[in-house]
Recover the amino acids of this structure.
């Protein structure tokens, strides 16, 4: 049996006594966070050409206003940062329309086009932790704000490891508020048949760490893929690692 122990400073006991691990997807299991960043930038670079008085899109905008949030919340929060107000539009609004839902759907199209053109490879360290956790008998779930979690897991070859996937589609159908609310993580724990206290949350986004910290979870592991160690700790992470292999 592969041991899960204290491979990272402060990691001793972070998984001890846990019955399940609840993983965020983008930036934790797969590097699709980079694809999301690119898709958001393409979206707002194009949109802001029609709003010349607004500040250009910056790389920091992704972490400041978008990362880890449901897609349409990301649109709203970015627009608010530029003092731009748009009509909501219907949920299935045409991606060509400059509405909150239209922009969100446009971003989704850009994202899916990028994924389809290059596929998705999971982080090696994350796969190693998944394998070790399964050998240890831990249950696994994915909790993602993305509405594309299922196809991304399939493209990454990880679908068989996750019998429970709570994504943006599930959140809407169940009326669950998105991160930083802990509701989606708590729902995943219930689907696994476990109390939150026995589930570890693994997140790379500040809003996701806040979600884990707001619930009564066993612990919250932050993975620093760009949000910053200090920001993740301030948001409530129990520990922060650069790669999940550090926990092996």
């Amino acid at each position: 049996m592969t041991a899960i122990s204290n491979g990272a400073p402060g990691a001793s006991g972070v998984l001890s006594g846990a019955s399940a691990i609840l993983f965020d997807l983008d930036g934790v299991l797969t590097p699709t966070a980079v694809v999301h960043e690119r898709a958001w930038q393409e979206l707002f670079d194009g949109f802001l050409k029609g709003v010349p008085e607004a500040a250009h899109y910056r790389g920091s905008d992704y972490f400041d206003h978008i990362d880890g949030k449901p897609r349409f919340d990301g649109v709203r929060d970015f627009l608010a940062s530029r003092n731009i107000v748009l009509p909501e539009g219907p949920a299935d609004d045409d991606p060509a329309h400059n509405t909150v839902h239209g922009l969100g759907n446009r971003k989704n199209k850009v994202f899916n086009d990028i994924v389809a053109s290059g596929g998705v490879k999971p982080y090696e360290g994350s796969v190693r932790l998944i394998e070790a956790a399964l050998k240890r008998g831990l249950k696994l779930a994915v909790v993602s704000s993305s509405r594309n979690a299922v196809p991304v897991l399939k493209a990454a070859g990880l679908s068989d490891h996750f019998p429970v996937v709570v994504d943006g589609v599930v959140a809407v159908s169940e009326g669950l508020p998105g991160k930083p609310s802990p509701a989606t993580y708590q729902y995943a724990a219930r689907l696994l048949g476990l109390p939150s206290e026995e589930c570890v949350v693994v997140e790379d986004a500040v809003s996701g760490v806040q979600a884990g910290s707001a619930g009564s979870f066993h612990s919250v592991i932050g993975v620093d893929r760009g949000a910053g160690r200090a920001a993740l700790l301030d948001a409530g992470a129990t520990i922060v690692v650069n790669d999940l292999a550090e926990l092996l």
User: Anything to note?
Assistant: The chain is about 45% helix and 10% strand. The mean pLDDT is 92.
